[in-house]
User: Which sequence fits this backbone?
């Protein structure tokens, strides 16, 4: 099949504003991924195209981008799900709400700043009883879903609240906080809830559900955010 | 401000589902209702500050343009109330997220259902006022 790949390109050193570049790629297999098409452009057509990717298998979360106006990982988006018939167009743009450095690469620092603000690490200064902290399967299941986050930013940059106000911590940071807030072994839940109850915390979430749809790991993001909201209202996780 | 422009532009481009549509409707309904309240507060203040202007404002309200505006206002208020309840429910009971699509569609349907009688009555008066279909 033949695919026209429309890429939103921008090089701040040369371009006054972003523009659409089109590349026609022949002999595309339906099971090819959008990342394969981007590789084809970069390796055989135009080496100046800039994009991030690392593992290329949906684990590292480097290649989140807007594909046909929906946040996805380029390494997981299959051509057959985007193009019907023998010829079609796939549109690729950088994720929204973060400054574009070049082409599909955005400045992730504000995203990671929000991530760091929620203390995304295990806190417990007590000595482990009998050599380790024990946990029941039920206690583990409480936060199992949010351990799957790969920090790709697909959720945060799909959120209209984040587009409107970049100071909002965003769904990804709340998911990361949820992972530790509901961990029975952790002792810093109150500190995290204090951070998330501030003006730019969970209350900027408008329960739009774009984050849940965008998550490539199928994390129930909006549900996790609602659980954190409820924990704040109750004054704790118990 | 660029964030506001980005948001307004991209909500029409980004392929969000019913949740995004519900949010857009919620915001539009709120802005429309606030606009109505502002106009209403200003024209009511004319009673004290500018009585002739108040009579003029009342006459304007009887124009077809404002009649249509009032017909938009009723669904806006009803939708905003029902959708607000939906958001509260989804936040209060996170486990309902699996049914969020159905609950959102039910919100749209309930809005239409509740607006229908009002629209029929107001629409009848509107057509009567225009003198169409044998009206006065």
Assistant:
């Amino acid at each position: 099949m033949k695919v026209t790949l429309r890429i939103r390109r921008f090089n701040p050193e040369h371009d006054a504003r972003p523009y659409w570049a089109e590349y026609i790629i022949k002999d595309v297999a339906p099971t090819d991924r959008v990342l394969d098409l981007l590789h084809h452009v970069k390796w055989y057509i135009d080496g100046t195209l800039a994009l991030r990717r690392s593992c290329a298998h949906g684990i590292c979360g480097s290649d989140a981008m807007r594909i046909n106006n929906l946040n996805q990982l380029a390494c997981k988006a299959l051509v057959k799900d985007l193009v019907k018939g023998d010829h079609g167009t796939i549109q690729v743009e950088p994720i929204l709400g973060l400054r574009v450095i070049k082409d599909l690469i955005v400045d992730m620092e504000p995203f990671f700043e929000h991530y760091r603000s929620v203390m995304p690490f295990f806190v417990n200064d007590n000595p482990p009883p009998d050599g380790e902290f024990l946990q029941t399967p039920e206690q583990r299941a409480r936060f199992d879903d949010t351990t799957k986050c790969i920090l790709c930013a697909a959720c945060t940059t799909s959120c209209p609240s984040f587009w409107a106000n970049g100071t909002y911590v965003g769904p990804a940071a709340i998911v990361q906080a949820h992972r530790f807030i509901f961990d029975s072994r952790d002792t810093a839940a109150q500190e995290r809830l204090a951070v998330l109850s501030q003006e730019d915390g969970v209350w900027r979430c408008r329960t739009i559900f774009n984050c849940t749809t965008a998550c490539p790991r199928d994390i129930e993001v909006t549900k996790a955010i609602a659980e954190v909201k409820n924990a704040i209202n109750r004054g704790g996780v118990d | 401000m660029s964030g506001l422009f980005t948001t307004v532009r991209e909500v029409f481009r980004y392929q969000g589902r019913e949740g995004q549509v519900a949010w857009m409707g919620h915001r539009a309904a709120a802005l429309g209702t606030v606009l109505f309240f502002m106009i209403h507060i200003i024209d009511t203040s004319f009673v004290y500050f500018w009585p002739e202007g108040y009579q003029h404002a009342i006459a304007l309200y009887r124009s077809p343009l404002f009649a249509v505006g009032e017909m938009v206002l009723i669904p806006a208020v009803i939708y905003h109330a029902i959708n607000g309840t939906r958001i509260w429910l989804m936040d209060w009971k996170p486990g309902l997220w699996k049914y969020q699509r159905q609950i959102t569609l039910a919100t749209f349907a309930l809005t239409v259902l509740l607006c229908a009688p009002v629209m029929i009555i107001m629409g009848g008066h509107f057509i009567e006022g225009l003198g169409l279909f044998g009206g006065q």
